[in-house]
Design goal:
Blueprint lengths: L4 E6 L5 H12 L19 H8 L9 H17 L7 E5 L18 E8 L2 H12 L3 H8 L5 E2 L12 E2 L3 H8 L8 E5 H6 L1 H11 L6 H10 L2 H11 L26 H10 L1 H6 L11
Parallel strand pairs: 1-2, 1-3, 3-6
Antiparallel strand pairs: 4-5
Length: 289
């Protein structure tokens, strides 16, 4: 029986890895903290391996556009090989979209639901810039670019398969559109930080996990930022890119974006206005609680 997928979708630096870690503790009913280097879900670093294992041709011989066309069938094949005893949790920074062939990138028949995470774009910029090793101004320009990709080679794909991230506003709009074929809940990063037990209880419900308040509270405690930061300092984190000095940063809001060009911040706010209003984000960097 084919496993059902639960996709955690977010713009980069919006709490995806933290969410994966909390849900992994819940899935495994952990009674002790799980190492950040032992997260047993997401399959993010295995994207290339999964693709090459289920596509009829190696990704190195395809362009990013050609790879895109194969992903729905690759995911169908992958899901069919996974046990259906627990949710198949997948991390993505992709936009929600159809391929050029008309298929949804994530096929509806193998989907259980989507946990969509969103974070104030100013704070995304402040966290995304050191992650990429870029200036904050360059990062904001990328967040305004509808063609922004992750892991894109100039032509052929050699190491990893690309993710079409797009602009911050376009990404948020894609995962909140009215015509999506799967159930989606949107969770603000800020709300998860303010009340993680409430937010992760909703996320666990989408994943079909037990509504066990004590288990979720324990998972949240085991995934505290100070513990994640301490482990990364001591043992490193295999998902941290070489461009980033640290993967688990402060996790706080309102820090760092003030150094950006004010004109770029205004442009980001103006061009993201509809989605910012949808999520009660203000153009001064604040939000409504």
């Amino acid at each position: 029986m084919t496993a059902k997928m639960v996709v955690i979708a977010s713009y980069p630096r919006s709490g995806n890895t933290w969410t994966r870690l909390v849900l992994d503790h819940v899935c495994r009913r952990a009674t002790a903290p799980i190492s950040i280097n032992d997260i047993d879900n997401g399959f993010y670093n295995l994207r290339r391996m999964i693709f090459d294992g289920f596509a009829p041709i190696d990704a190195a011989n395809l362009t990013a556009a050609e790879i895109d066309r194969y992903w729905p069938d690759v995911l169908r094949g992958f899901a069919a090989t996974q046990p259906d005893t627990s949710p198949l949790i997948i991390k993505t920074h992709e936009t929600a979209r159809r391929t050029e062939m008309g298929d949804w990138l994530y096929p509806p028949e193998i989907m259980q639901g989507v946990i969509h995470l969103v974070r104030h774009p100013f704070d995304v910029a402040a966290s995304y810039a050191p992650h990429l090793g870029w200036t904050i101004d360059r990062t904001i320009r990328a967040m305004l670019d509808s063609d922004h990709h992750l892991d894109r080679a100039a032509d052929r794909m050699h190491v990893a398969t690309a993710e079409r991230v797009g602009s911050w506003a376009g990404h948020a709009a894609s995962w909140t559109a009215d015509d999506l074929p799967w159930p989606v809940i949107s969770l603000r990063y800020e709300d998860l930080r303010a009340d993680p037990i409430a937010g992760f209880t909703r996320a666990a419900a989408v994943a079909g996990l037990a509504d066990d308040a004590g288990l979720i509270a324990r998972a949240v405690d085991f995934s505290r930022f100070d513990r994640l930061q301490a482990e990364e300092r001591e043992a490193g984190f295999r998902e941290r890119p070489a461009t980033s000095p640290a993967f688990f940063r402060a996790g706080r809001s309102g820090i760092g974006w003030q150094d950006a060009d004010p004109a770029l911040l205004r442009e980001l706010a103006d061009r993201s206005a509809e989605m910012m209003q949808r999520f009660d984000y203000r153009a001064d960097g604040g939000w409504e609680g």
